[in-house]
Amino acid sequence: MLRTFVACASILCALAAPAGAAGIQLLDSETGLRGAIWYPCAREPERVALGNLDVGADFRLMGVKDCPMAGGKLPLVLFSHGRGGWFGQHHDTAEALADAGFIVAAINHPGDTFSDSSRRDTLSILASRPVDMIRLLDFALYDWKDRATIDPARIGFFGFSLGGYTGLVLIGTTPDFERVAGLCKETTGTCAQLHSGEARPNPPHDARIRAAVIVDPVPSLFTQTNLAAIHVPFQFWRSQFGGPGVGDGAGNARVAGVLPGTPDIHVVPAGHYAFLAPCSPELAAAIPRICTDTPADFDRAAFHREFNANVIRFLREHLGP
Q1: What dotted CATH number matches 72-98+113-319?
Q2: Span 160-190, pLDDT tens digits
Q3: Residue 228: closest CA among 260, 262, 263, 264
């Protein structure tokens, strides 16, 4: 059940086709956050080394490091990665949003990244993930050197898999841990903690988030009752065939059927991994399981062009151009 939360297992997820221009500022240990901020940039992109951000000395993202900011009072979108992932696993979507005039901020969730599994599959990580995003938002609004370029009234969110859980919590949902405890059959990890009588987390919400994109979230913690607390517009994506962490797709079909209001719902005829950035030949050879889509003829690169365009459209509609 909860132990199978999944996302990209390696930083190689970002070895994909180059995207358009985006400025990149890296966040490191001096800020207490490890990740990056993408933003509009008028210069041609190049490969940006990630230094000491625990992603490998030879790894690069496409963009312009420390490019001068273009524009002001821009909308900000927070990104939350999946289980065992990292801040750049949706780099193509972050770059597309930056090209479209958004600022994007993403960080590694401590204890649940490809290189740090110290708190993976624990109740504590379910409590801390929303807190991580609140810390990131506070940093961007109050401590980031270019904070004046952000419009604090236009804050959005993008989350995949366990990051989708993070987003649903932030925009108002209280997870139903009792439901999950009743479904859990495992004797280790989160299930064991739920059955041990350990106190249930009470993760925080954040009313500053005005719109969200929720992508193939872990469905077991959500019901019609707790989802009814959401009162902000959101776009909901689910995979038809599911995958590790989200089951066979039926769970998110159930969630989609009980979402409140009139969310913008999309069903993708593929598996869970299709939402990760398109794979390079090197990545496909190194980790074929996250690059092999279902069905075999699914075109991930073509899908991501449509996916990114729809995410931009939705966030422009609800956060402004």
Answers
A1: 3.40.50.1820
A2: 999 999 999 999 999 998 888 887 877 667 7
A3: 260
